[in-house]
Design goal:
Elements: H1 2-11, H2 14-32, H3 35-47, H4 52-73, H5 75-84, H6 105-110, E1 126-130, E2 140-144, H7 145-161, E3 170-174, E4 189-192, E5 197-201, H8 210-220, E6 224-227, H9 229-241, E7 251-254, H10 261-271, E8 275-280, E9 287-290, E10 296-298, E11 303-308, E12 321-327, E13 338-347, E14 359-366, H11 384-387, E15 392-401, E16 404-411, H12 417-431, E17 436-441, E18 456-458
Parallel strand pairs: 3-5, 3-6, 6-7, 7-8, 15-18, 16-17
Antiparallel strand pairs: 1-2, 4-5, 8-9, 9-10, 10-14, 11-12, 12-13, 13-14, 15-16
Length: 465
Amino acid sequence: MHHLLEAAYYKSPVWVQNLAVSALGYTLRRERTGLEASELLRALTETERWSASDLQDHVDAQLRTIVAHAFERVPYYRRLSERTGLKPTDVQSVHDLAKLPILEKEPIRLAPTDFVAAGEDSEHRLIRLSTSGTTGTPLTVFCDITSRRRHYAFWVRLRAWFGITPEAYRATFFGRVVCPRGQDRPPFWRVDRFQRNYLFSSHHLHRQNLASYCDALRRLQPPEIIGYPSSLHAVAVYVLDRGVTDIRPRAVFTTAETLLPHQRRAIEQAFGTNVIDQYGSVEMVHFVSQCERGSYHVHPEHGLLEVVGPDGEPVPAGTPGDAVCTTFVNRAMPLLRYRLGDRVVLRDGSCPCGRNFPMVAEILGRIDDVLVTPSGRPLGRLTPVFGQLDGIREAQIVQPSLDRLVVKLVLVDAFSEVRREKLLYELRKRTGNELRIDLEVVSEIPKESSGKFRAVVSLLRATDR
């Protein structure tokens, strides 16, 4: 039936599609707002100004609550307790986290319902979600309406930091296929009246269509623009190339992909405002965002973010490590010390914004997409190299084997031999002589089925990394 409805949607006129999108928006709005969300939002406006010690006490209390809930009601954690003798009372504060084992993705992939809290499994309460699965099989996760409302309250708070109210219109650029894939004429967007949301298709951002996207944004003048960095970057490059200077949102938010430096520069220049980057997950295990001063903060009321090394031990600030997260908001599927699959760098110090939230120095992206040399040396981020050279519209690095990198380039104009050699020089300066580097000029770099763009793609087996 789902596929039949989808087929009927794509065959319908645009005004009917707008009605369908708005009907879904009504449902989503009901799921995201309500008494729980309002109460939490009021609490969040207070906790963000608490002292560091008060915040730590609050975090420890939330940790005790979620651990007790998981051990009492979640099959996986009940079995863990029976097998190891571990009790929820053994975890009293963040200093006791190491007593809990790190949770990998595979057990969830094999038996997702083992992680659902008893009493939260009725059809009308559970909401089934799926991660994008761009590095393998998608992961099935669950939440309930209360969890979704709690999570959404953090988005409302973040928007409020930048003067965006829940009633403000916004333009979104995400992966939902709101237009038929074969559509070749505008509008490449649909309108959700209930959420005041113009949903722009990330799947139709081809060069020949960008003028209509630009014209729509000029006409709509949305106070907020939010989307994948790669999608907003494509529009921003067009805006800059055409000298358009009258699209001026109050705030631009990026999320769901790693924001690269050259993307940030182009988006900020095109829209005349700072980009606010947010880092979260479908699993609702963490919420990280930039503040008004540009610092990345972990929102501690949402969940815990640890950064650990290969041995599972915490790494010091400034050192890259694996993100391991514990949710405080998703009681329907309470994941404890869940290895997210991303690399993150923590940061010491305090922020001029005055919030005593933990800080993140850098979000490096997925572990699966870390490049390595034949000697096993992990390479740092290479993508900033592309921002140093003129004439590169888009780039992707693919590692098909341990001894080879393929760099795919979408060019603005002809690539001179001088620029080619300069690019190879900068890449080899960072990789050494262990890898062969091939440059491949292409007309377009396909996005994933989710609409996301992957700047780095590793095709290596896990045993080769």
